[in-house]
Write a structure and sequence with these properties.
The strands form two sheets. The chain has a three-stranded antiparallel sheet, with no helix packed on it. Strands 5-4-6 form a three-stranded antiparallel sheet, with no helix packed on it. A hairpin with a 6-residue loop joins β4 (about 70-75) and β5 (about 80-85). By secondary structure, it is an alpha+beta fold. It contains two helices and six strands.
Length: about 110
Amino acid sequence: MPEYLIEWTIELDAESPEDAARAALAIMRDPDSQSTVFKVYDESGEYVNIDLSGLDGQSEAEEGERNFTNYYKCPRCGHEWTDGWTAMCDDDCPHCELRHISPYKSEDV
């Protein structure tokens, strides 16, 4: 069976690192949370973003509801990649991990 590394990222304000961790845990455990996007890495280090916002627990990628193919280029290292999302949203560079890179182009799919 393959092994995966899962990342879930959230930004929030808190008084201390412990308070931030507690707040993130509360959001993760909230069944009504809208924080449902996960970055899933396979054993080779490649990743895909999975949005589990569907009521049946299936990812939107599995349901074929990716509305956009977003094209990214990292301003730090120059790495280029594409990713499928349900919106034209920022992504993190899979090479140098620079955060919040906006797509330079998006296509409806």
